[in-house]
Automatic annotation (TrEMBL):
The gene is mlaF_1. SUPFAM superfamilies: P-loop containing nucleoside triphosphate hydrolases. The keyword Cell membrane applies. This is Putative phospholipid import ATP-binding protein MlaF. CDD domains: ABC_Org_Solvent_Resistant. One of its GO terms (molecular function) is ATP hydrolysis activity. Coiled coil: none annotated. It comes from Pandoraea eparura. Residues 13-31 have a biased composition (Low complexity). Residues 1-31 are annotated as: Disordered.
């Protein structure tokens, strides 16, 4: 299991009565000028555009990957890969096992270097920035690793507190308030704080992982197979939680998933990774029209069709002929 979570960045607290995590000051990365709770809350609301499936707005993309190539030895994972993620989108990254989904995320968050190409995050080319800027950019994003990756020897409290303590600027009192608030945000009672990860269900572990990933109020959240291993009810609860966080924090989310229901319920766009590139990055009703064996088997098999039926009626109507045939 990965040992260290990606450090997040302090950005915006979300509730009156809970102290803001002071934002690091940087010449190169814009940080909120104020740490007053009220100011930051209204600032967050004002800067949070509505969820949109369109990239045509004026806002600069949060993530821009251009002509990316990634090789391990002679094994080419990505070749001429492009991906754009707009603000407040929820991108579902889908693709066969081993197609390079996790590797793509690891490059975007700077845990792996591309062999070639450009990746910019929040307008910074992450392949050419200095370490300090890289550190600050990482603080603006949170990550839920594929296997939860909680520290097994630490309590729930200490797991969530860990990125806050790494700042070395917060008092334990403040850390306690933030941790308890994050627990509440992910739907866990404060009584869970003293539990060990081994005492938690899979769904609870994911929630704690999310609480840690949002500890520093990131603007960008990466989720690697967040509902894998969860039963259907826990998956639905997880989807509700992400939807709620997306709504309240205006997060941009990039989520690797095989879970069709999660894709239909959350994704503003689906990016399909196949043949070493992103074949299509579009709303699911456009994706399913692309003639490709992976897309066909993933979305238009029995499970895929059933999941597509959960789309809102207007979106479903756009693909009615695809849903009707072959039954
Ligand atoms: N550090 C590494 N060294 C060598 N090969 C790797 C490394 N990380 C991933 N790979 C290979 O890259 C390919 C894509 O892996 P991954 O991104 O984990 O796929 P996915 O998440 O889509 O299942 C796989 O063939 C995997 O074995
Ligand atoms: Mg993976």
């Amino acid at each position: 299991m990965p040992k260290s979570p990606v450090p997040d960045r302090s950005q915006t607290p979300a509730r009156a009565g809970v102290p803001a995590v002071p934002a690091p000051v940087s010449a190169s990365v814009p940080a909120p000028a104020s740490t007053d709770v009220g100011d930051v809350i209204s600032g967050a609301a004002a800067s949070c555009p509505p969820v949109s499936s369109s990239l045509s707005g004026d806002a600069e993309p949060v993530i821009e990957v251009r002509d990316l190539t990634k090789r391990y030895g002679s094994h080419t994972i990505h070749e001429h890969l492009d991906l754009t993620v707009g603000q407040s989108e929820i991108i579902a990254l889908v693709g066969g096992s081993g197609s390079g989904k996790t590797t793509l995320i690891r490059q975007i968050i700077g845990l792996e270097s591309p062999t070639n190409g450009h990746i910019s995050v929040f307008g910074h080319d992450i392949t050419s920035i200095d370490r300090r800027t890289s550190h600050l950019l990482r603080r603006r994003s949170g990550m839920l690793f594929q296997r939860g990756a909680l520290f097994s020897a630490m309590t729930v409290f200490d797991n969530i507190a860990q990125p806050l303590r790494e700042l070395h600027t917060l008092s334990e009192d403040l850390i306690r308030d933030v941790v308890m608030y994050k627990l509440e945000m992910v739907g866990l009672s404060g009584r869970m704080a003293n539990r060990m990860p081994s005492e938690l269900s899979g769904g609870m572990i994911k929630r704690v992982g999310i609480a840690r990933a949002i500890a520093l109020e990131p603007e960008l959240l990466f989720l690697d197979e967040p509902t894998a291993g969860l039963d259907p009810q826990a998956s639905d609860e997880f989807v509700d939680m992400i939807r709620g966080l997306h709504h309240s924090l205006g997060l941009t989310v990039v989520m690797v998933t095989h879970d069709l229901d999660t894709v239909m319920m959350l994704a503003t766009r689906v990016a399909v990774l196949a043949e070493r590139k992103v074949l299509v990055n579009a709303p699911v009703e456009d994706v399913v029209r692309v003639d490709h064996p992976f897309i066909h088997s993933f979305f238009l098999g029995e499970r895929g069709r059933r999941a597509l039926l959960a789309l809102p009626a207007a979106r479903r109507a756009r693909i009615s002929e695809l849903l009707d045939d072959g039954k």
